[in-house]
Structures are given as C-alpha cells and as structure tokens.
Amino acid sequence: MHVLILGGTTEGRVLAGLLAGAVRVTSSLAGRVAAPRLPAGEVRIGGFGGAEGLAAWVRQHGVDAVIDATHPFAERISFNAARAAATAHVPLLALRRPGWVPVEGDEWYEVGSLGEAAGLLGGVGERVFLTTGRMGLAAFAERSEWFLVRSVDAPDGPMPARVEVLLERGPFTLEGERELLARHRIDVLVTKDSGGAATAPKLAAAREAGVPVVVVRRPPVPVGVPTAATPEEAAAWVLRATDPVAGL
Ligand code: NAP
Q1: Which of 4, 160, 207, 218 has its CA 20 to 30 A from that of 54?
Q2: pTM across the whole model
C-alpha cells in the first residue's frame, strides 16, 4: 500500500511518522522552505505540474490513497489534489487542524483576504506584528505603518517601506510572544487563522496586552473532500481506505 501525503505542516509530519511502519509513505513538500524538517518515510520535493501532473504521479507511483495535509491556506494544491484524486480514482482526505476561535477578552477583526487585512490597518494600529508568511507581503507593500514581519525564510518580494524582519520558526512561547509585543510596542497583530498550538501563544499575548488582532479567514476545503482534524484520525482513515477487506 502506498500513501501520498501532501505535506508542509506539523500534522503532515506527524501523520508520516504514524504510518511509516505500517504502509509505504511518500511525503511531498513544495520546496518553499530552504531547510525543511523532514518526515519519516520517503520524501519528494517540488511541484507536480498542476492537477494533471499530480494525477500522473499518483498513477505512475501506484498510490492507493492521498492525504492533503497542506497548510489551510495552501489553496491551489488542495484544489489540485481534489481534481487529481478524482481523475486517478484514488481516495482523498484533507487533514485540517481546527481553526482558532476568539475567547473573552479578544478583540478580533475577521477579514477574507490579506488585501482586506491591509486595508483595515489604518483604523486599528500603527505598529504591526505581521505573521502571515513571507509570500503575501506584497499586499502590505503600500502601507505606511511600521511592520515587524516574522517568517521562516527571508522575504524577497515587495514589502512595506518601514519594516523589520525577524527570521524564526515556531513553536513559540507565551513568554516570548509577550516580550516581543512589548519590546516592539506592537499595537496590532495580523495573522491567518492557521490554527494549531505552535503559533497560538501570540493570540494569548495579544489578549493580555489589549492588542487587537486582524484574522484572515480560511479558504474552504474543496467540495466533497472528507476531512480529519488530527493525524491520528487521518491515520485511522488511511488504514480503512487501504484495507481491501474493510474498504472505505
Ligand atoms: P499553493 O499556493 O496551494 O500551491 C502552489 C503550488 O505549489 C501548487 O500548485 C504546487 O505546484 C506546489 N505545491 C504546494 N504544496 C505542495 C506540496 N506539498 N507538494 C508539492 N507541490 C506543492 O501552496 P502555498 O500556499 O504556496 O504553500 C506551499 C507549501 O507551504 C505547502 O506545502 C503548504 O503546506 C506549506 N505552507 C503554506 C503556508 C501558507 O500560509 N500558505 C504556511 C505554512 C506552510 P504544482 O501545481 O506544480 O504541483
């Protein structure tokens, strides 16, 4: 049995670890991060060449099931996975960690896109902690606020004029996030609703400090694709999906 995990997330890596002893596992990474944390099992790096390329790869490598464990905001590869799985007639599951929800004391502004987040800033804050990743910085390039940008690798495209870049990879601690907000006198945080524990402490630190948070909502999972919330749930699905007796 051969399972393809479209990865690039902690959950994808954990799932590969859970499955590696039981079935053949290949994890696929986009190749965006210079030194990625590698999962157990086989690893391939780089794009497939769209949905058709992915479907061809699935067929050529005898893949029996695909898990889309990509980041909740990696919209194109998830769409491609849905098309490719339908073309190649293999089962597909989306592994999506649950999104964050506001709790008492939070001041959240939910928006539908990075562009909308940028447009909202003027009325909310002047010193922005921007944690939406280095790929979407162009949306903020024309803004005049001061930005602290935190990303895993250095950004290289258009970005705001008044910017300091902090190269760091999570998990982050509440103590560290508190200190960061205070040191840079942050008065607004911008984040995607990535979910998960590794980057959640920034939300608690913002709540404590009375810092408002602009939250970019998630794109939907492609229609008809079942989802699992945890690697354990996804592993159970794989074992069912690849069991010729139990079926799906
Ligand atoms: P995207 O916009 O959905 O995908 C763009 C293209 O990158 C895809 O069409 C595909 O190229 C290739 N690709 C994406 N994920 C791939 C994978 N796991 N294996 C092979 N090719 C992949 O993706 P993105 O938002 O740029 O994210 C890229 C990767 O970074 C993903 O693996 C994601 O899990 C991870 N990541 C993304 C974010 C985020 O905020 N977007 C945050 C953390 C991690 P082809 O069409 O040529 O196949």
Answers
A1: 218
A2: 0.91
